Amino acid sequence: MNMFQAINNALDIALGRDKGALIFGEDVGFGGVFRCTMGLQKKYGKSRVFNTPLCEQGIVGFGIGVAVMGSTAIAEIQFADYIYPAFDQIVVPRGPVKAKGLLLSCIRDPDPCIIFEPKTLYRAAVEEVPIEDYQLPIGRADVLISGNDVTLIGWGTQVHVLREVAQLAQSKFNVSCEVIDLVSILPWDRDTVCKY
């Protein structure tokens, strides 16, 4: 399953299990600009998966309003450049397994969450993603490679580059690099980062 398929699967699970869940944003009803909501409006109806006007502040405000009224608001903002009015919790998955588990965690978290989906990974990153429902913790980093000389910290797409750098540093310079994926950049896992 690639990352866009994992995201679509997580959204399908969330809508199927939570009758109060709503997905909305620009072109969401048509499948979204990156196709992550493809088929969901047909399956769940126009009252649960729908388009909004081109106004990010309006999308976020609508999400807050429906959440206050008891619904589970899943607001899609197409590009990170327009999200600044809505920061609270931010997660950035490095691949499909993380994308699905973090998206389900964010949807079910009682506080607003933002998940930045690295668009370069939508179809490039492929992993064995569990079909069943699962959640991953928000705010917990992953130590991907243990090392003693230097620590490399990143999130999302950067993590793949850091792994390559760590391998290159080891093979060319005998430098042992630790690689940490922050997973969540707000809140970030100070304990893991400072411990290692």
Automatic annotation (TrEMBL):
Cofactor(s) the protein needs: thiamine diphosphate
Alphabetized UniProt keyword annotations: Oxidoreductase
Organism listed in the record: Rhamnusium bicolor
GO molecular function, a single term: branched-chain 2-oxo acid dehydrogenase activity
GO biological process, one term: response to nutrient
Name of this chain's protein: 3-methyl-2-oxobutanoate dehydrogenase (2-methylpropanoyl-transferring)
Record-listed E.C. numbers: 1.2.4.4
Leader peptide range in chain numbering: none
Source domain of life: Eukaryota
Catalytic activity: N(6)-[(R)-lipoyl]-L-lysyl-[protein] + 3-methyl-2-oxobutanoate + H(+) = N(6)-[(R)-S(8)-2-methylpropanoyldihydrolipoyl]-L-lysyl-[protein] + CO2
Keyword Oxidoreductase included in the entry's annotation: yes
Gene3D superfamilies with a match to the protein in the record: 3.40.50.920, 3.40.50.970
Domain Transketolase-like pyrimidine-binding: residue ranges: 1-124
Class of the enzyme per the UniProt entry, highest EC level: oxidoreductase
SUPFAM superfamilies: Thiamin diphosphate-binding fold (THDP-binding) (SSF52518), TK C-terminal domain-like (SSF52922)
Coiled-coil blocks: none
